[in-house]
Design brief:
By secondary structure, the protein is mostly helical. The protein contains 8 helices and 2 strands; from the N terminus they run ααααααααββ. Strands 1-2 form a two-stranded antiparallel ribbon. The N and C termini lie far apart (about 45 Å).
Length: about 200
C-alpha cells in the first residue's frame, strides 16, 4: 500500500529510512521496513518475509511476537549506529533476522522438527549469506549483517522458551534414577509431555 501510494502521488519516501547517527534518522527504525525503492525490491522482501514470518508464528508462537519486534528494533538501532551515512530502506534487515533466528534456534534446540525447519531455511535462503558482504554499493549490507546477528542472538536468548526437544524413554529413566521424586510433567509445545527434574526446563 505504501509503495503504491508513493507511485500514485509521486511521493519520495526514502527520507523515512534509517539515516545513521542523525536524530531524524531514528524514526526509520520503525518506518524503513515499509519503504522500498521499487516493486521488485518490495516483492523480493515480501515473499520471503511471508514464508519466514509464517514459520516463526507457527513453530515458535510463544515467543514469535517478541522475536519479531525485537529483531526489528535491534537491527534498526544497530544500523543507525554502525552503518554508512546514507538512507537505509526496506525490510531486508527483519528478513535476515527471522532467517537467522529460525536456523540457529532449530540447531541449538536439537528438536527434530525444528532442525528440519532449519535445514529448509538453509536450503531456501542459504544464498542470503552473501548479502552480508559489501559487494554491491547500493545494497544495505549493514542491514543484512545486523539482522543476521540479531536473529542469532535472539535464538540464543530464547533457547529455553517455546518448543523444546522431547525426552526419550531412556532419558526419562535416567532422570528418574537421578531424582526419583521428580514427577512433574512439561509440554514440549507440540503435544508431547515429558518428565523433568525440578528446576530444569
Amino acid at each position: 500500500m505504501v509503495k503504491t501510494a508513493s507511485v500514485i502521488f509521486d511521493w519520495e519516501l526514502y527520507h523515512l529510512g534509517i539515516y545513521p547517527l542523525d536524530i531524524k534518522g531514528l524514526m526509520g527504525i520503525i518506518l524503513s521496513p515499509f519503504i522500498h525503492g521499487s516493486f521488485s525490491h518490495l516483492i523480493s522482501n515480501s515473499l520471503p518475509l511471508l514464508v519466514l514470518g509464517t514459520a516463526l508464528f507457527y513453530f515458535y508462537r510463544e515467543v514469535a511476537f517478541r522475536v519479531f519486534i525485537l529483531g526489528l528494533l535491534i537491527t534498526g538501532l544497530w544500523v543507525w549506529v554502525f552503518a554508512r551515512p546514507s538512507y537505509h530502506i526496506g525490510a531486508s534487515g527483519v528478513l535476515y533476522s527471522l532467517a537467522a533466528f529460525l536456523f540457529v534456534s532449530g540447531i541449538i534446540r536439537r528438536h527434530p522438527r525444528l532442525m528440519a525447519l532449519s535445514m529448509l531455511v538453509a536450503f531456501l535462503y542459504g544464498g542470503m549469506v552473501w548479502g552480508i558482504f559489501p559487494v554491491r554499493e547500493h545494497i544495505s549490507w549493514e542491514s543484512h549483517l545486523m539482522g543476521m546477528i540479531s536473529g542469532a542472538l535472539l535464538a540464543l536468548f530464547y533457547r529455553e522458551h517455546g518448543p523444546q526437544r522431547p525426552l526419550y524413554s531412556w532419558e526419562i529413566e535416567e532422570i528418574e534414577e537421578t531424582d526419583p521424586d521428580s514427577s512433574e510433567s512439561s509440554d514440549t509445545g507440540n503435544g508431547t509431555s515429558f518428565f523433568y527434574t525440578e528446576g530444569k526446563n
